[in-house]
Amino acid sequence: MTIGNISLGDYPLFLAPMEDITDPSFRYICKLYGADLMYTEFISSDGLIRNGQKSVDKLDIRDFDRPIGIQLYGHITEAMVEAALMAEAAGPELIDINFGCPVRKIAARGAGAGMLKNIALMIEMTSAIVRAVNLPVTVKTRTGWDEENINIMEVAEKLQDAGIAAITIHGRTKVQLYRGKADWGPIAEVRKNSRIKIPVIGNGDIDGPHKAREMFSRSGVDGIMIGRASVGRPWIFRDIKHFMSTGELLPEPTTEEKADLALLHFEKSLEFKQGKRAIFEMRRHLSNYFKGLPHFRETRLRLLTSLEPDEIRTIIKETGEKYGNFRTDEKTSVYSG
Fold first, then answer.
1. Residue 94 DSSP SS3
2. Which of 84, 131, 200, 302 counts the most CB atoms within 10 A of its CB?
3. pLDDT for 60-104, tens place per residue?
4. Mind listing the pLDDT tens digit for each residue in 281-298?
5. Cis link prior to 67 (omega < 30° from 0)?
């Protein structure tokens, strides 16, 4: 599979852009485990062109990230074009447009998945960005606004005509948010459409090797994007790759191995961020690394309330020593069939 001049091999795995999650420290860990292409956290075009610090900080790209895409969202074409030019100057391999975020405060003003109610503007904006930048432009979107308006086939064809280099489709509508089961049917229909020549990347409910193989085989997608299932489980990329090539399932890491990984992730967060922000933004990850451990409530509370790096390091190390070779019960594992 290729996007522009970016060669990604067979069965490539993508790390989805996730707000407050896919920062440089998490991307570092996911790359260690085999993510083929990663994305920054999504960036507001309005915030970027106004030089908002939080938005500008998200343009932080490092050598280990590559290949990487910068994802932008917004509802005004001129602002999105300006932001795309700023993003291009940061040196990514591609620019991605978010037409899929279902969060109310974003979609209600016509950005993200809100653009599914204004296809004409979506195409106008995409065409303008494709003309403005010299990098491949890709799009991430959903199957439609709601179940009565599944229009992804029309959207995919028009976006391809507008010049995008690949499309990622999340198998839910905007109205579904992240509820219910992702429907891969519309994704498969787009991939089978003889008019669609660009790569199609499937997204939604890919939580382990079995689901990944099913998505590739049932939908015929060119690649798979993984989001929430990677949080606390970045080894999912390694496990899927191993399963796709050998048919064998790797055992879930022991708690001691998870503790070592959590510690590395924490150190990278401290390295890449300033002050307490590194601690605050690691809490979700730390909680998920040790999800499913028995009798862990008190330790978890300490882990999520401490503001001292040395104390957090100690808690992580003590957790690894205490639980040692313990693995999450198979019934609660995302890999249980």
1. strand
2. 84
3. 999 999 999 999 999 999 999 999 999 999 999 999 999 999 999
4. 999 999 899 999 999 999
5. yes
pTM: 0.92
Mean model confidence pLDDT for the chain: 94
Residues known to be catalytic:
101
Could you identify the residue written with the tokens 């998200």? Answer: 58
Query: Do residues 191 and 152 touch, judged by C-beta distance below 8 A?
Result: no
- The answer to whether the CB of 235 falls within 8 A of the CB of 253 is yes
What integer pLDDT is reported at residue 88 of this predicted model? 98
Residue 334 predicted with pLDDT over 80: no
Question: Which tokens in the block code for residue 91?
Answer: 């040196």
Question: What sign has the CA pseudo-torsion 23, 28, 29, 31?
Answer: positive
Place of tokens 């690691």: 282
SS (H, E, C) 141-159: EECECCCCCECHHHHHHHH
Q: What does CATH list as the number for 8-246?
A: 3.20.20.70
DSSP alpha helices (H): ranges in 118-222? 119-132, 152-162, 185-192, 209-219
Task: Dig out the tokens for 217 from the structure.
Answer: 């085989």
CA 115 to chain centre: 20
Indicate the domain borders of the chain. Answer: 8-246, 255-323
Whose structure tokens read 């109205």? 175
Looking at residue 336, its pLDDT comes to: 29
Q: Is 92 helix (H, G, I), strand (E, B) or coil?
A: coil
Exposure string over 127-163, b if 16+ CB within 10 A, otherwise e: bbbbeebebbbbbbbbbbbeeeebebbebbebbbebe
Rounded-to-integer distance, Cα 79 and Cα 121, Å: 13
pLDDT digits (tens, 9 = 90+) for 57-72: 999 999 999 999 999 9
Asked whether the beta carbons of 143 and 101 are under 8 A apart, the reply is no
